[in-house]
Design a protein that fits this description.
The protein is built from nine helices and 13 strands. The protein starts with 7 loop residues before the first strand and ends with a strand. Strands 1, 2, 3, 4, 5, 6, 7, 8, 9, 10, 11, 12 and 13 form a 13-stranded mixed beta sheet that branches. Helix 1 links the parallel strand 2 and strand 3. The chain has about 290 residues and is an alpha/beta fold.
Length: about 290
């Protein structure tokens, strides 16, 4: 099992990491973010765009580690915002506010040499819970050896969403190898002809793997946006209590700016697919707010 790796990326107003911006009349706000690896590419690009459109006003420091790491960090006051790739849970600390910023599809993937085109809902459950252990038991599979399950570590929001949406609430089998990021999981599937895993439609769309349909529906931006595909989850920005100051301005810009949909150059689902209502976690329950 790979250890969780907290990778960081800083966006300075000067546009170059480690180079200080010229002194300004007003202080530059620093927004710190940690959390989901699945939403990291999207949030990083949005932050870059926001810095460019708000020169001299803000800089970001963004770290990965997993959705639960982000939740823990923001609840403890270590970061301004948590990137989260799953819905609120009853076990989340009270007082957190979840702001949905996008929807994404969770795709099942196999090695490119295993050109399996589709799995039924029951087949997905059987494979990922460890009941079906060899590819010879899966019609349409071009692999024939034992099935190598590749999953995410327990802090991953994509894992939680995958189990909720596509595994009927069941857990991925403990025999699965666990990876700390989407990129590492995808790399494992690329390198193992007998493997199967799951990633966001953004990672799946980068190529190098075979993307498997679910119940006869392809997993891609088009089917996700139309609502045809079943495995649709949300990306959230999460704050400790209601967002204020620079964090509130950034989250509001994400929800309202056309740049969110047309300027970041990513294959995520339409910004209009995510409601702009927040969800506050209080006493273990989610409460909708305007």
């Amino acid at each position: 099992m790979h250890g969780i790796r907290r990778l960081s990326l800083a966006f300075a107003v000067a546009g170059v990491l480690g180079v200080a911006a010229p002194a300004a009349a007003t202080a530059t706000s620093l927004v710190t973010i940690s959390g989901a690896t699945a939403s990291f590419p999207l949030v990083s690009l949005l932050a870059q765009k926001y810095v460019k459109t708000h020169p001299g006003k803000i800089k970001f420091k963004i770290a990965q580690g997993g959705a639960q790491v982000g939740i823990n960090d923001v609840a403890a006051g270590r970061v301004t915002i948590a990137d989260v790739s799953r819905d609120p849970l009853p076990t989340d600390p009270a007082g957190l506010v979840f702001y949905p910023i996008a929807k994404y599809a969770i795709c099942v993937i196999t090695n490119k040499t295993n050109t399996l085109s589709n799995l039924t809902a029951s087949q997905v459950v059987s494979i990922f819970t460890g009941k079906t252990r060899t590819w010879s038991g899966i019609p349409g599979a071009t692999a024939s050896g034992p099935i190598d399950l590749i999953s995410r570590t327990s802090v991953a929001g994509v894992l939680t969403s995958f189990q909720t949406l596509l595994l009927e609430g069941k857990k991925v089998a403990s025999i699965a190898s666990e990876e700390a990021s989407e990129g590492l999981l995808k790399q494992q599937v690329e390198n193992d002809p007998d493997s199967i895993g799951f990633v966001s439609n953004y990672q799946a769309g980068l190529g190098g793997v075979n993307v498997v349909g679910y119940n006869g529906v392809a997993c891609n931006e088009s089917t996700g946006t139309s609502g045809q595909y079943a495995g649709i989850a949300r990306f959230y920005e999460v704050t400790k209590k209601k967002a204020t100051g620079a964090a509130s301005a950034f989250i509001g810009w994400i929800s309202s700016s056309p740049a969110y949909r047309v300027s970041v150059g990513m294959s995520v689902l339409s910004g209009k697919a995510a409601t702009t209502r927040s969800v506050a976690v209080a006493s273990g329950k989610g409460v909708a707010n305007s």
